[in-house]
Each structure stands twice: as structure tokens, then as C-alpha cells.
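Please describe the entry underneath.
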Amino acid sequence: MAPLWHPSPNFGLRRDGLRPAFVVIHYTAMTSAEAALKRLCLPEAEVSAHYLIGADGTTWQMVREEDRAWHAGAGEWRGLTDINSRSIGIELDNTGATPFAEAQMAALEVLLPVILSRWDISPENVIGHSDMAPGRKIDPGPRFDWQRLERQQLAAQRGHSDGPQDAPMDHFRTLARDIGFTSNVDDDTLLAAVRLRYRPWGSGPLVPADFTPLGHTALWT
């Protein structure tokens, strides 16, 4: 079923002739999809996204993909800024405190391949808001099932080899940067952002398991 058209006035032209190269996934942090839809279309709120997916799988489109929605804010991915001009934003109706509904995830899995194909976006460039704005944003949060998207080739594949013993933070930072985490943040903020994406249950100092999703054994040497 095609998304329901519900236009938002909060958009503009993509700057410098840029085209979508990323998809940024968010959660709404609001009590309902209807409340989020209202806010994303409120002129004074000055926020929007291209799509909103409700918990029941209902999908609304608020901004044309060709246009620049106002969803990402300040941040960086793969050394690139102005993510709004470079991305398509998808909001998921969720407070961040509960699992994402099956119908919602199924709808996302229908929408994503269409977007990726239309704009020739690689799965490696399907990211969370927290990936490109570490320390500032935490959505789609620890309950979002990234591995489900990975299994369907809709997000970057994580590594599975054992991480190195006693590797320094500089090495972790280099590997994280290589997969896209290029924001200028301190070590603790970077570690928290990578963990939020790959092992949200992790805590404390850097451990070998933090390296595992970032690559394979050849990178440890």
C-alpha cells in the first residue's frame, strides 16, 4: 500500500544540487503517531521528515523525496555534513521505551528497498540519528532491531570475529571512523554511539567485544 500523502510545509530545496545518499532512521519520542504527524506538519515547529510509520504500519509521506526535510540537524557521517540535504528521513512512532511493533518494522522493510533502489543508496548508508549526531541524539535507540535490517541487506553488515585484546582507543576510533562515525566527539561519546548501534547493553570501559562489529580479524593487525 502506498504511503498516505500528508504534506508538511517544513521543507526546502536540497542545497548545491545534492541528492539523497543516506537514509536516517528516527523515533518520534511522542505519545502517538497522530501527535507526531501534527508536530511534523506544524509550521512553527520547523521540523519534518519525509516519512512517518505508525505502530500499526500505516505510513505517511510528508515531504517529497526530492526535497530537503528538516529532520537530521547538526551532525556528520562519512565526513559529510548538511545531512538534511543528503538524506531521506524516516520517523517511527515510538517513545524509545518499548520495542518497535512488528507491523511497523514490516512496513519499514517495504519502504526501505524502494528508497534505496530509487536513489541508488547502499545499505551501509542506512543510519540512525544517533550515528550521525553522537552525544546529541539517541534515536532510534537501544530497542531498534538493526540486525533484522542487516539480515535483509537493508543496513550495513556487522563483523563477527573476536576483537583484539588490549587494543587502544585510538585503534577503535580509526575503525569507527572507517565505517562512518566521523563526528568530532570525545572518546566516551564515540564509544556510546557505536554501542548504541551495535551492542546497546554494553557499559564501562572499551572491551574487545566493542571492536567485533566494526570489522574482521585482518583489521586488528
